[in-house]
Amino acid sequence: MSLTFGSWITIGHTAIAELMAAQDFDWLTIDMEHTPMDYTEIYHMVQVISLSGKKVYVRVGENDPNLIKRVMDTGAHGVIVPMVNTKEEALRAVQSVKYPPIGKRGVGLARAQKYGYGFNEYKEWLAQESVVIAQIEHIEGVNNLEEILSVEGIDGTIVGPYDLSGSLGIPGQFDDLRVSEALARYEKISKEMNVPTGFHVVEPSVELVNKYMDRGYEFIAVGLDSLFLGNKVKEVLGDLRK
User: Fold this and answer.
1) Does 34 participate in catalysis according to the annotation?
2) Which of 34, 44, 77, 138 is the catalytic position?
3) What predicted TM-score, i.e. pTM, was given to this entire model?
4) Which of 177, 181, 182, 188 has the most C-beta neighbours closer than 10 Å?
């Protein structure tokens, strides 16, 4: 995986999806874990982004085969699976995305399969190009990283910085030595096993993004829709109030 930039969508409206897809991101992730978006909203958001020509992933709410199957059936290019802490959980994620004999996903004829008119093409695409990203956001996941990355079909990982620091009892304290040591271990093992690393730079800051680029991260999420909106409003109104 070469260096790519994406972002997070948390506001469940197709206008947001359309606006974000019109920007120069390589991919976008619709967040199903920490938002009230339901399946119908996810379907329409995936539809808008994919028709724009952008890669679209869904960060599912849990490592659940039925949920992942339904999300993939919308035509999503892949999933980001939260809180992957063990080899077994990584295998479950892959098997939920892939059809037999690679996985265990049930076969349906929905948007992804062009409602039945493109099943054979989709089957080939799924085996070769669908993306499974394991989110490493707990110290247990870091400690079990070698086993997680050994699972065939895990295309990369992405760090969840808030939850990782939270698992150490220091949520949001990213400069704490324990967080730094956990990230260093994550980076070292990923590099040794030649698996792409990812990071969600929540605050949309070029300086912070450059920091993680310099550390070799390849799958970088920059900000999220609500922060881009809020920061710009704050900036303009701050200037006006002066």
Assistant:
1) yes
2) 34
3) 0.95
4) 182
